[in-house]
Every structure is written in C-alpha cells, then in structure tokens.
Amino acid sequence: MLKGIIIFLIAFYVGMGLPQVEAQKLHKLTVLANKPGPEIQHSMWGIFFEDINFAADGGIYAELVKNRSFEFYEPLMGWKKIKEGEGKGKVFILNKNQKDTANLHYVTLSSESSNGAFGLFNEGFRGMGIREGALYDLTFYARKVDKSNVKLRFELSDPDGKTFASVKAEGFSKDWVKYSLVLKSSATHSHACLKVLVDGIGKIDLDFISLFPRDTWKNRKNGLRADLVQKLADLKPGFIRFPGGCVVEGYTLDKRYQWKNTIGKPEDRKLNFNRWNTELKYRLTPDYFQSLGLGFFEYFQLAEDIGAEPLPILNCGMACEFNSGEIAPMDQLDPFIQDVLDLIEFANGPVISKWGRIRAEMGHPASFNLKMVGIGNEQWGEQYFERYWKFEKVLKEKCPQIKLVSGAGPDPEGEEFNYAWRQLKNSKADLVDEHYYRSPDWFLKNASRYDNYDRKGPKVFAGEYASHTKGDSNPISRNNWESALSEAAFMTGLERNADVVQMASYAPLFAHVNAWQWNPDLIWFDNLNSVATPNYFVQKLYSTNNGSNVIQILENGAVIAGKDSLYASASVDKKSGEIILKLVNVAKAPVKLSLELKGAVVQKTARMQILSASGLSQYNSLDAPENIAPIEKKLKVSGKTIQLNLEGQTFVVLRVPLRK
Ligand code: AHR
Which of 2, 335, 393, 493 is the most exposed place for a label (fewest CB within 10 A)? Predict the structure, then answer.
C-alpha cells in the first residue's frame, strides 16, 4: 500500500512537471573566443523608412499643416470654413493655369462682414501637437486682390476655440510674396489647430500656408521632429532604406515615387498620392498624400547625421504588382535607368555636375558618399528580371563602385522566390532583398535559415521583416513580447551568418496611433510623444552591440538554434576588446548556462543587458512606454567559465571584456 502511494506521488510530481521540484536544465556552451570568423558589416543592422502610417507627413516631417498647398484631390481637405461674431464670407479655389508648376491651386478668402471675422482653420494631421512656451514658424504666400487693406489673423487654438497664440499681418502686396511670422504657444495641446482669419471686410489670395515648430532636429528649417529622429539616432543604425516599400512602386506608374520631385524648394515639390491612402480597406486614409517635404536631400542629410549608410530603393519601371501591376515597356526604360544614374550624381557628383550642383545649392557641397542602391522594391516574376538585367548592365558599367540590391519578391519561400534566386545566383547583384512578415513560430523555426545558404552567391539583405502574432496587418497584431522575443531568437541566425546576411531591417518603422494602416511597427507616436516597442529594443540591443567578427558558440559541437528553446550567437568586437554573446530563451522555464570562453583571458566583470516581460502578450504604450525595456546588470566572472541563470522568455546580451 505504502509503495503504491510513493509510486503515485512520484508519478504525480513528474506528470505535473511542477517547476519547484524540476531541476533546471544545465546547458554547457562553448565559445570559440580566440577564433574570429567572418566580419560583421558595420552597416549590418539598419532601418527601413517608408511613408506609411503617417511616418513622413504627420510624423517625422515636422510640418503641422495638412494640405498646405491646396493640392489634395479635394483642395479643401483638412481645411474648414470658420467665422467669428457676425463674420461671413466665401472661399474660392483657383487654378494658376501655369505649366511647369508643382503647385497649381491657391485659395481666395473673401470676408464680407465688417462685424466679425471669416476664414479657414486647418485641422493638422489628426490635430497639431503644440507645446507651452514653444515657438512656431508660420510662412505663407499672399497677394492682395483689390485695393482694400486686408487684416489677417493667425491663431493656434483648441478645437473649441480656446486660443493659445495669435499673430496679425497686414499691408500685403499685389504680387505674390512669402511672409514669415512667429507664434508662441501659451499651452500644450495634442489636438490644436491653426486658424487663418480675415478681420472685417477684405479679399486675399493665399497659398502654401506652413507651420513648423522652431524646435526641429538640429533646428533646421523645413525640418524633422526632433524626438522621433532621436529614437532613430539611438538605434545607431548601420543604414537607412528609403523611401520604401511599396510607395517606391506606386499604385500606377505615374504615381510612383520620383526623387526628382522631392528636391529643391518645398513649394516646388509636386504632391503625390500616397498608395497607402486606399490600400487597406479596413483602414482607409483618404487624407494621405505625400507633400515630399521630406525628400531625398533631407533623407541623405538624416542618414549622414545619424551615421547611417543611405540605401535608396528606386523604381525599376514597375508599379506595385499587388495594385495595377503596370509595367514600362522594355524600350521605354531609359528614363527610369537615368533616374538612378542622376540620383547617384545628386548624392556623389562634383559640384560642377548638373545634379551635384543642385545638392550644393541645397546646402551640401560635399558628397553624401552613396555606396548602394536598390533596383525595384518587392518585385517578382520574369517581367522584373528582364528589367533588372538592363539596370544592372548600365549601372555596373557606369558606376561599378555602387553596390546593387535586387528584389526577391514578397515571400521568403515558394515558386517566385526560388525563381528569383535561380536568376540572381549568377548575376552581378551584390545583395538580394528578402522579405518576411511571418508568425512568431516561423521566426523561431527559421533561426537556422541561413546556416546552409550558398556562400558564393550574392549576399542577403533581410530588407523587411517583422513577426506578426496574427495575420498581416490584422488590427490586433500588436508589437507584443511574443513577437519581439521571436525576432530576437531569429536574429541570432542573422548574426551567426553575417558572412551571408550582410544587412537587415525591421519593417515598417513608424506608426501614428490615430492614423496607421499597417501593424506591427517599430515606433508608435502621437502628435507630441512616441513609444519604442519591445521590437525596437530588440533591434537596439543588436545594433548597439554589433561585434566586428562572428565567433562560434556551440552546444555539443552544434549551433544553438532552437533545441530546448535556446538560441545563441556570439561575436568579438576587436575595437573594444570584448566578447559579445546574444542569448535567447523562449521557454517559460529558466535554464542554467555554463559558458566556456575557450582561448580567452577575460576580466572579472561582464555587463548584461536583459530584455524580458511579465508575459508574452505584454507591450509598451504611450501611457506605459517602459513596460518592457532593457535593464542592465553586472555579472561576476571567475576563470574562463561563466555561470548564468537565463530566465524564461528572456533575451540577454552579455559583454565580456577581454584582458589586454
Ligand atoms: O512594410 C510594409 C510593406 O510591406 C512594404 O511597403 C512592402 O514592401 C511590403 O509588402
């Protein structure tokens, strides 16, 4: 009987797997610390910028006025008529009927009552974020219509009409003149708007009404939102892919992204329809256009500011194959190829060259030192390759120093993907752009994806990826810990194979909490604040802990890529003299690690950066931005073996300094 009870109790404890009685498994890992392997590119971990989710207009581009030039398809979109007191009047949209102007339309405000005011207000991009005490630079073009002395008033206010700043202007010329005024806000508000009022009777033509915070990134005019750029700078990204993404391709070819429309004075940049405006039926965004205020000059400057290599992706004569699929006939590809050559000249050419001169006139005589370009975004099929070969031929002849990135379609496997790789194996493409928006499970299973890739073919650019806990763009596919942890595990495989995978970028980068189309995304923001997701912190832990060379980390002679839910990669940083280990445990239970650093003489204290959460469904929000954020700890090291308790569902970066 007693024997029976004992057997039952043993069976009970074993069967239930109770954590308090289960011994933690010990993993003995060996790090070949004195055998530096392939180099890891300085540019390995980068960022993908696309104007999706209000990433540019309404996002990083600090302009507060939506539809500032009245060029949206509905010219008054974003603007509403307003009156004060007994004010009344009319608004007319006029067409300049000029050829060669990017900016065809303007408004006439006609105020018809002497007892009050009449005009327009601009709602901003889901409101305007303004701060108490901050200065706002207002610029606009105006022309007086008749002889009357028109009195204009500009105000920052809340939607109920409470005023936070006010400034007046009068004495307008009969010719178009650009005027500049400054507003100082007396309050902080995330949904302010800009009022443009004519006091009393008067008629005036207005165009290109623009409002920027004085406080932009590096205080530049036509600048970028400083807090959002800071988040990018903190990533210390190796490169910036720009401008996408599908916006490169456009819904139709005439709506493709054309870099030449994005340089020069902002008022001369031709507005473009943003293909994300109508793309996702459950998140239609009719007010999504591209002012192109953040254009190629600002992009190159941003990359330079934050020490990232620019990686422009250019149209290859194909509109988005998910949309119209329109393609340029083979005998009409020259302008597309010329656009690439001209962009290279714009970035690198001497100031006496046609495009180099424009760069210099815009304020940057020195070269931007562009080293690579992508031909086409996410293209696939024969039609892509016959076009790609033409680009490759010309570019390799004329600009042999420029690396070429070629597409491999939207999927990381399947017929089109295999076809692409068969084509590209013997090409002169330097990098092949692979995309994967897949489940956490896919990411875990693919941690060894590159272990057996051909070492002799083109290199891989993991150009767009993100772990989606639910299907693509599902409204509740959150940036939760489950997604971030699976990316951390997968990325050990990218680092381990840094001889093949030479660059990687999470996608998309930004999303406005009130105006997104696609999720998950790396950084979320509203009109005043922003929040880094756990996925961001995973990226940051990789990019700020990038070694110079891969070294092997093994368990029983094998790479660590998912057995017992454990993932690991290792590198040495020759410059700082440290061994850097990335360790990921995706199981719930903690594990014990015994890490033998073979051939290394190490110092007594190592630095641990730990990223973890109280559950897989946890995430960060604007209200709780640091719910999941890395913490730092010191770890004592004695001899060559490090003992480490790796908690469940945790990502750790361990930096072990070598003795000099
Ligand atoms: O990142 C969002 C989109 O995903 C990109 O625009 C496109 O390249 C991919 O399909």
Answer: 2
* Ligand 1 centre distance from Cα of residue 578 (Å): 37
Q: Best mutation site among 435, 468, 477, 519 for ligand 1, i.e. most ligand atoms within 8 A of its Cβ?
A: 435
Give pLDDT tens digits for 582-603. Answer: 999 999 999 999 999 999 999 9
Contacts of 456 (CB under 8 A, 6+ apart): none
Per DSSP, the residues of 363-386 read: T--S-----EEEESSS--SHHHHH
Whether a cis peptide bond, with omega within 30° of 0, leads into 245 is yes
518 CB within 6 A, ligand 1: yes
User: Residues 195, 125: contact at Cβ < 8 Å?
Assistant: no
Q: Is the CB of 464 under 6 A from ligand 1?
A: yes
pLDDT of res. 121: 97
DSSP 448: G
pTM for the full predicted model: 0.95
State the Cα–Cα distance between residues 179 and 91, nearest whole angstrom: 21
CA of 398 to the centre of ligand 1 (A): 30
Phi, psi of 500 (to 5 degrees): -105, -50
CA dihedral (517, 523, 528, 529) positive or negative = positive
State the burial class of residue 384 (Cβ atoms within 10 Å of its Cβ: 0-12, 13-18, 19+).
Answer: buried
Q: Rounded to the nearest whole angstrom, what is the distance from the C-alpha of residue 326 to the centroid of ligand 1?
A: 18
The CA 243 to ligand 1 mean position distance, Å, reads: 11
- The finding on whether 507 has its CB within 6 A of some atom of ligand 1 is yes
- pLDDT-flagged residues of the chain (< 50): 1-21
Per-residue confidence (pLDDT) for residue 12, from 0 to 100: 37
Q: Which residues pair with residue 166 across a beta bridge?
A: 155
Percentage of the chain lying above the pLDDT 70 cut: 96
Determine if ligand 1 sits within 6 Å of the CB of residue 244.
Answer: yes
Peptide bond into 508 cis (omega under 30): yes
SS3 label, residue 164: strand
pLDDT tens-digit map of 262-303:
999 999 999 999 999 999 888 899 999 999 999 999 999 999
Distance (Å, whole) CA 32 – CA 26: 19
Instruction: Give catalytic residue positions.
Output: 378
Q: How far is the CA of 246 from the centre of ligand 1 (A)?
A: 6
Please tell me the distance from the alpha carbon of residue 169 to that of residue 154, in angstroms, as a whole number: 8
Eight-class DSSP state of 271: P
pLDDT above 90 coverage of the chain, percent:
90
Question: How buried is 529 (Cβ within 10 angstroms: 0-12 exposed, 13-18 middle, 19+ buried)?
Answer: middle
The dihedral formed by the CA atoms of 586, 590, 591 and 592, expressed in degrees to the nearest 10: 140
Q: Is the CB of 410 under 6 A from ligand 1?
A: yes
**Cα(636)–Cα(78) distance, integer angstroms:** 59
